[in-house]
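SAMPLE LOG
Freezer: B-3
Tube label: C17
Construct: single chain, 111 aa
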Amino acid sequence: MEKLNSCCGLDCKSCEAYKATQSDDDSLREKVAKEWSELNQVTITKEMINCDGCLANGRKTPFCDSLCPIRQCVISKSKESCKGCESLEKCEKIKMIISSNIEAKKRLLGE
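STRUCTURE (predicted):
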């Protein structure tokens, strides 16, 4: 089983914010900022699009750093991820991810 690189089982390496940061691609940062601004109906600037991954020490987008309820829950429980959490399959915070992303669910359940 692959090592998790996020709290929720998603693959940070497939995230466009992560890709833009790792390749230092300002045009991709602008694209992501525009898409996320429209999707979330908030202002997101290209300067906010910097992320080294959820579990890495380093840069994170404002959402991933301090607003993501999943990451905040994991931190409050002094865990690295949701993997092994006794409430995982009943958790409302992660429900949308594990019900729509089979790979994330497999990573968290160790399948």
